[in-house]
Amino acid sequence: MRRRAVRVVVMVVMIVMLVRHLNLSSGHHGGLDLYTLGGYMTRMRAEIKTSCLKRLKRIEGQIRGLAGMVEDDRYCIDVVTQIAAAKAALRRVEEEILRDHVAHCVEHAIRSGDKADQRRKIAELMDVVSRADR
Description:
This protein is mainly α. It has 4 helices and no strands.
């Protein structure tokens, strides 16, 4: 149980570090378009970006707290409870970003009338949703 908790903490810390490394708070995508199938159609809306960054910073604090709990040999159930809270917070950020993606990229593909682009965007969305459930 303890090993799994530590793995989850490490995974979440790595995600937070990746977000910081990609410098999402700047005015550019930090090279993210190299890792997307078709690049970005439009930028994330400013209010969504601000909200997500605020949440991610809070989650970063939660993760630091979790690492401290593990270091202090806190009760396993307390650690697992906090991990569940951090995972739920990450899911909320994920949902917010996916909603923004649907509102911009998928909507753009639908409006374009390009059937191939529509199929690609729907397939991409289904793929990311199925990965998120694992």
